[in-house]
Amino acid sequence: MVDVRRVKLPGVGVLHTFVTEDGGKVGVITHRSGHSDLITFADAEGGSDASKVSLRLDEDEAHTLAELLGGTRITESLSRLDEIPGLSIDWFTVDYDDFIAGQKLGSLASRGVVGLTVVAVVRGESANPAPADDFTVFPGDTLVVAGTPEKVAKAFAFYRTGEMHKAPADTPSGG
Predict the structure, then answer these.
(1) What pTM does this model have?
(2) CA atoms of 71 and 26, how far apart (whole Å)
(3) Which helix (H) or strand (E) segment is 81 a member of?
(4) Could you tell me where in the chain the CATH 3.30.70.1450 domains are found?
(5) SS3 state at 155
(6) CA 160 to CA 155: how far, in whole Å?
(7) What is the pLDDT of residues 120-172, one digit of tens each?
(8) Which long-range contacts (CB under 8 A, 24 or more apart) does 105-111 make?
(9) CA angle, 131 as apex, 126 and 133 as ends, to 5°?
(10) Binning pLDDT at 50, 70 and 90, where does residue 67 land?
(11) Residue 169: CB partners within 8 Å, gap ≥ 6?
(12) Looking at the domain covering 88-170, what would its CATH class be?
């Protein structure tokens, strides 16, 4: 049985790799956008750049290749395990011209976005899990947020522009 290694690539998708009987490595990067990259490579110790190959496939091409190889849609099935209805986990990379750059993270709840959490801020090679409202965000930081897709989109718009737009779904019903 082949041992498949699975690694989440924040902001990109999922990488699945395995080592072949002759010592080569094969990998598939399944991007969040739906396309896949088929890669083959040798270990860094003995491999050369000449032995590395990368091929980009759209979703249909990836399925066709899997069928030609006699496989199943295992990657698609594994990806579905990460999906939770009504929950979106997404990454926002801060640019110099974004409103949030140089600002304190602040509470989005106080601005009307309830039900969204900044899970972590990634800065360089380190993560700052569950950052406080007074955490200062800098260009190059990546904010990892979780919430409904609508709330995530609303927060990202605020991070870019500093403006908060009310959506009809955010208006309380009744009294």
Answers:
(1) 0.50
(2) 15
(3) helix 74-81
(4) 88-170
(5) helix
(6) 9
(7) 888 887 788 888 888 999 999 988 888 888 888 888 888 889 887 654 444 44
(8) 105/131, 105/132, 105/133, 105/134, 105/135, 105/136, 105/137, 105/143, 106/133, 107/133, 108/155, 108/158, 111/158, 111/164
(9) 145
(10) low
(11) 150
(12) alpha beta
Composition of the chain by helix, strand, coil, percent to 5: 25, 30, 45
Instruction: Fill in the amino acid letter for 131.
Output: P
CA 47 to CA 41: how far, in whole Å? 7
14-43 pLDDT per residue, tens: 888 888 877 778 888 887 767 788 888 765
Q: What is the dihedral of CA 84, 16, 62, 24, to 10 degrees?
A: 180
Structure-block tokens of residue 162: 């500093």
Token pair in block for residue 31: 């991007």
Residue corresponding to tokens 């082949």: 2
Give the chain's mean pLDDT. 74
- Strand 88-93 relative to strand 53-57, pairing: unpaired
β partners of residue 53: 40
Per the structure block, which two tokens stand in for 153? 């989109």
- Is residue 120 within 8 A of residue 129, CB to CB? The reply is yes
Q: How far apart are CA 120 and CA 138, in angstroms?
A: 14
Place of tokens 């919430």: 147
Distance CA 145, CA 119 (A): 5
